Amino acid sequence: MIDASAIEKGNTPLTPQQIMDGLVHKDEKVRLSLAEYTGFTPTFELAEIGTTDKSSKVRKAWAERMDWTPTPEQIERGLTDRCDMVRWAWAHRKDFTATFEQIERGLTDENMDVRWVWVSREDNIATPERVERGLTNDDEWVRRIWAERKDFTPTPEQVERGLNDESSFVRDAWASRKDFTPTPEQIERGLSDAYSTIRCMWAKRTDCTPTPEQVQRGLTDVDESVRYAWARRMDFTPTPEQIENGLTDEDEDVRVAWVDRTDYTPNAEQIARGLTDISVEVRTAWAERMDWNPTPEQVEHGLNSSYIEVQCAWIQRNDYTPTQEQIKRGLLDDNKKVRKAWADKIASMMVADTISSEEVWSASL
After folding, report:
1. Which of 51, 124, 145, 278 could form a disulfide with 119 if both were Cys (CB 3.0 to 4.6 A apart)?
2. What pTM did the predictor assign?
3. How far is 136 from 145, CA to CA, in rounded Å?
4. How big is the chain by its Cα radius of gyration, in Å?
C-alpha cells in the first residue's frame, strides 16, 4: 500500500503500478505527493489523469511540473480551470505559445494575480491596443508592469499620464524609463514628488540639467537616499556651503559620496574631521582620496587604525615614505591582509627605486 510519506521520502523508486495507483488514490495527500514526486517521467495518460484531478491542489501541482509537454487541449483546459491558482500556474508555463484568444482572456481574468502573469508573458505582444488598455487599467499593478515593459515606445500622452498617475508605484516605473525626454514641467513635478523613491529616481536621471534651485532642494532633501543620489551627480558645481553640508551630513553614505567627489579641494579642517569620523567607511574614503598630503601624524594614526579597511587604505597611499618602524610593524602584523598590503607596497616602492632591498632587510630584522 502506497502512502504520502513513502512518496515524500523517496527512498525506494516507485513501480509503474504504484504510480498509477497513487494517481487515483482516494487520499488527496497521496495524489498531491505523487504530483510533486520527480522520480518518474509522466506519460500523456498520467498527465491527463493528474491535470483532471478533482483536487485543485493536485491540478496546480501538475501544472507546475516542467518534465512533460502538455497538448493544446490540456493547455486550454488549464487556462480555463475554475480555480484561479490553477490558471495562475498554467499562465506561468513557458513551454507553449498562447493564442490571441488565450492572451486576451488572461489579460482580463477576474483574478489579479493571473492578470499580472499574463501582462508579463513574452508572447503577450505589445500591440498599441493592448499597451493603451494596460496603461489605463484599473489595477495599479497592471499599469506598473506595462510601464516597466521595454518593448514599446510610449506616446507623449502616455508618458504624461504615467508620470501623473495617482499611484506612486506607477509614477516610479515611469520615472525609470529612458525612452522619452522629459519636459521641464515633468522634471520639476518628479523632483518635488511626495514620495522619496520617486524623487530619488528623478535625481538619478542624467538626461536633464537641473536648475540651481533644484540642486539645492535635492541636496537638502529630508530623505537620505535622495541626498545621496544628488551627491553622486557630477553635472553641477557645488558651492562651498553645499560641500560643507555634505561632508557633515548625518548619513554616512552621503558623507562618503561627498568625499568621493573630485570637483573641489578640501581644506585642512575638513580633512582632519573626516579622518576622525565616527564611520569607518568615511575614514576609509578619506584615506583613499589622493588630492591632499597627509602629515606624519595623520599617517601614523591611520596605520594604527583598529579597522583593517582603514589600515590598508593608508598602506596603499603612495604620497608618503614609511619609516622602518612602520614597515617592520606592518610585515609582522597579525592580519594576513595587512601583511600582504605592506608586501605589495614595498614591492612597488622597490620597482620605483624609492626603497632599497637593504632598507627592507634592515626593517624586517
Report:
1. 145
2. 0.80
3. 12
4. 32
